[in-house]
Amino acid sequence: MAIAHCKRCGKIYNRVRRDICSACIVEEDRAFAAVRLYLHDHRDTTMEELVERTGTDESLIVSLIREGRLILRDNPNLTYACARCGRPTQVGRFCARCTQEMASAGRRKTEV
Ligand SMILES: [Zn+2]
Ligand SMILES: [Zn+2]
After folding, report:
1. What is the whole-number distance in angstroms between the Cα of residue 3 and the centre of ligand 2?
2. Residue 82, SS3?
3. I want to staple 7 with a disulfide (CB 3.0 to 4.6 A). Which of 19, 40, 105, 111 is the partner?
4. Distance 26 CA to ligand 1 centre (A)
């Protein structure tokens, strides 16, 4: 078993699979459930509204989307900034345009 610092709260814990501790996993799962429910009930919500109404950090919501746990099929107004150009996007780390640009720029630079 590996000892690690929780990426979220900074506590030392026994790392199993995730890079956050068990307390944070519970916390995150609860936030995830609240966010998903809110998205389902309020399809036209924005990120600002979602953060405010669910009391969830935008960074957590964005990471859930980037990890593919949260899919924004029915929420056209919910966007966050592309990590490359800052334009609004709804999936992954980069917007569709950047993904395409990077793909056509070649595979020399591999995104970590
Ligand atoms: Zn933690
Ligand atoms: Zn972009």
Report:
1. 36
2. coil
3. 19
4. 9
